[in-house]
Design a protein that fits this description.
single chain; alpha/beta; Spore Coat Polysaccharide Biosynthesis Protein SpsA, Chain A; 5-stranded mixed β-barrel; about 35% helix; globular
């Protein structure tokens, strides 16, 4: 079955970026000249996804507004003959069909996905987290779709992390059945480094099948009183097979201050307009330092 829908949870409070996120959704913080969420949506569009379902919360209307038409802005740009900017603005509103559902209480990622049950329906779907950027020649979502087309089972994207970082992530243990692809045998939520030999961390890309909804409905609350997606995935793995895919590309945690700076620098260096100036500036500053 062809996967048509992507769920993007954007209901988080963004507390790691306070006070900047007091009035601005963290997903609307810009990486060079576009908000983080736009990079995410562009990735799923480039992967052939037809519909995005955003799980929103209070104070997130700016995200939906960003992808909506802005008649006043478009009129002003047209009057001022700002044709390049006008084309860019129109392109954003025409990217993809976007619907949204409200997560009324902050009950975790698992609960956010459960909120989309009626909109997703009885078909497999992609989940992409709004603050995980992946710079890759083949979009990360497309890489997962390629694996799904072979195995037709749920897939989690994984990325090697240092031993010191293991306790910050969900970690996968498994058997490598082909290059970069693992049959999952165990999943752990933020384990102590000494409790596992694996360093494969679950990153914000998943392909899930609709049976995950029944499991989520019966998943007890875990850490912080939230419904943890990893707990539901572990139950799904017990019932049937889950795969993990070590994707190709560079991942940036744009929900973390240092990761956000890393992403900004990386995308600035690639930017056709300012890239050479940024590179020259950094080289100068590093030499002076």
């Amino acid at each position: 079955m062809r996967i048509r829908k992507a769920v993007i949870p954007v209901a988080g409070l963004g507390t790691r970026f306070l006070p900047a996120t007091k009035a601005i959704p963290k997903e609307m913080l810009t990486i060079v000249d576009r908000p983080t969420i736009q990079y995410i949506v562009e990735e799923v569009v480039a992967s052939g996804i037809e519909q995005v379902i955003m799980v929103t919360g209070s104070g997130k209307s700016a995200i939906e507004d960003h992808f909506d038409y802005s008649y006043e802005l478009e009129t002003i740009l047209e009057q001022r003959k700002k044709w390049t900017l006008l084309e860019e603005v129109k392109k954003i509103s025409n990217l993809i069909e976007i619907t949204s559902v409200r997560q009324k209480r902050p009950l975790g990622l698992g609960h956010a996905i459960l909120c989309t049950k009626d909109l997703v329906g009885n078909e497999p779907f992609v989940v992409v987290l709004g603050d995980d950027l992946v710079d890759a020649s083949i979009p990360c979502t497309q890489q997962l779709l390629n694996v799904f087309n072979e195995f037709h089972r749920p897939i989690v994207a994984v990325y090697p992390v240092s031993k010191e970082e293991i306790h910050n992530y969900g970690i996968v243990e498994g058997e490598e059945i082909k290059e970069q692809t693992y049959r999952v045998t165990k999943m752990m939520e933020k384990p102590a480094p000494e409790t596992t030999d694996s360093n494969l961390a679950i990153i914000g890309r998943y392909i899930l099948t609709p049976d995950i909804f029944t499991i989520l409905e019966n998943t007890p609350t875990g850490h912080g009183g939230e419904i943890q997606l990893t707990d539901a995935l572990m139950e799904l793995a017990r019932q049937n097979q889950i795969y993990a895919y070590r994707f190709a590309g560079r991942r940036y945690d744009a929900g973390d201050k240092f990761g956000y700076i890393q992403a900004t620098l990386a995308y600035a260096l690639k930017h056709p307009e300012i890239g050479p100036r940024v590179r020259e500036y950094l080289q100068k500053e590093l030499c002076l330092g």
